[in-house]
Design a protein that fits this description.
Structural class: mainly beta
Shape: extended
Distance between the termini: 38 Å
Largest sheet: 3 strands, antiparallel
Radius of gyration: 17 Å
Number of helices: 1
Oligomer: single chain
């Protein structure tokens, strides 16, 4: 099965409390950036992330921890 690629960008947005322009520290997909009102992509910051839901299923907190006993 082929990997799916998702566009992720750093975004700029106006902080509603202070009115200052801010930038995200990390690249976010468009869905994640929707929480910022009127967010705009910052040109030149595109990162393509590989996503394969099958390989990244939810796990429990103890998965990957050393066995006790």
């Amino acid at each position: 099965m082929a990997m799916k690629f998702v566009e992720c960008w750093r975004w700029r947005f106006r902080d509603p409390k202070s009115g200052r322009m801010c930038r995200t520290m990390y690249a976010l997909c468009e869905e994640e950036a929707r929480k910022f009102v009127d967010a705009e992509r910052i040109p030149g910051t595109l990162v393509m992330r590989e996503v394969d839901d099958r390989d990244f299923a939810d796990t429990l907190p103890h998965v990957g921890s050393p066995a006790v006993g």
